[in-house]
Specification:
This protein is an alpha/beta fold. It is built from 9 helices and 11 strands. β1, α2 and β2 form a beta-alpha-beta unit. The protein is globular, with a radius of gyration of 21 Å. The relative contact order is 0.16. The structure holds 2-acetamido-2-deoxy-beta-D-glucopyranose (3 copies).
Length: 402
Amino acid sequence: MIVSHRAAAVVFFCIVAVILTIQSLRLHGVSTIRHAGSQFDSEASSDVLNTTLGFQKIFVINLPERTDRRDAMTLAAALTNLQVTWAKGVSGTDVPDKVVPGEDWEKSILRGNKGSWRAHMNVLNTIVNQNLTSALILEDDADWDIRLKSQLQIFARAAQLFTHPDSRISTPTDLNKVTNIPVSSIPSPSKQPFSSPYGTNWDVLWLGHCGTNFPTPSIVLTTHSNTSLLRVTVSNDPTVPSPQHLKAHPFALQDQLAELYPPHTRVVHPSSGTICTQAYAVSQQGARKLLWRFGVKEALTKGWDLVLGEWCDGLFVDVRDKGKGGEMRGGRTGQGPVCVTVQPPLFSHHFGRGAASDITAPGGGFVNREKEMTPYVRWSVRMNMGRLVEGGEVRDQWPDDE
Ligand SMILES: *[C@@H]1O[C@H](CO)[C@@H](O)[C@H](O)[C@H]1NC(C)=O
Ligand SMILES: *[C@@H]1O[C@H](CO)[C@@H](O)[C@H](O)[C@H]1NC(C)=O
Ligand SMILES: *[C@@H]1O[C@H](CO)[C@@H](O)[C@H](O)[C@H]1NC(C)=O
């Protein structure tokens, strides 16, 4: 009898919890929702829940004439209780050749890429000039899950393994071996006055991309930091779509995440070969390094996202022997950059019906333009915008059984 009473009580409380969740969704907007399967609630990382997600500012790059995107982004930010700062996009025709650093920059580079480079440099310039401790930089077609803040709380804890020099996690002795560490075993961030709730020592947190790789032993040996083969896993994350929805684009042959991990696992790891800059955070030190390297010193040779990816891979770390290309990988003199990313990404490109990027479409333009969607993001803000504004239940864009 006692057992069945208990069972009834459990069922009752579950029903109440579901009703309360739905009520809070309807009545109070969505910013207070937590993961159903959240593994912890960390008091210490509550800064991540503020209106700038634990960064000092959130910048959104937007071409002034793209008022359509500005309206959508303003609403998306308001609906998830975020405060964004607009950063003017730059058109390539407005960038004179003489301001591009370096001698041998590729003059045939796409005009859109030139404008995009300058827009990102302008944001980095502002971050350095205002001495911001950190900032998140978004492109104006970025989308995210309405549970973003609780996702970022978990990400912040995972990132500590790579960004906190005094990490109490014992690292494996065999650094040539891939090691998975569950996020729940990482100590919660302490209350020390860190420069950011994401840790003390990082350059880039690459939160929104259209593809990244797990670092391999050979890459770790030739570039980068000694933590590179470590990965932090977040299992049973209900915000991760099931494997059939993880292929980045129709011609993707495989998705490593889906092949290597159980369904609904998110993995935080050092960046390797990451592309597309839908969303990335920089620390003050990261902004200074990037502004010096790409605003002042280095020639522009390709799109900004590809250059940032190579920088994170350690390809621009100065070397003793002044070799070019492949040689640059060895014998570095300085510390490699600390860039941490996550699969699947927490921000993703929103594809509106028939809409195209002002530069080029991620996925090589193979995206089905007829279908409005955002890869990887289940409770998408953009896909639910009408229902969030006018009332209605939030829909899962990537249900498990479809
Ligand atoms: C959010 O938290 C970060 C980190 O503590 C802080 O720098 C930022 O100013 C906060 N944002 C707001 C709007 O208070
Ligand atoms: C920039 O911020 C750092 C710490 O956040 C501080 O030590 C430094 O004095 C500041 N510099 C300027 C120019 O405000
Ligand atoms: C990385 O290397 C440095 C110096 O070689 C060492 O002090 C540090 O403990 C290493 N970190 C890890 C996580 O192994």
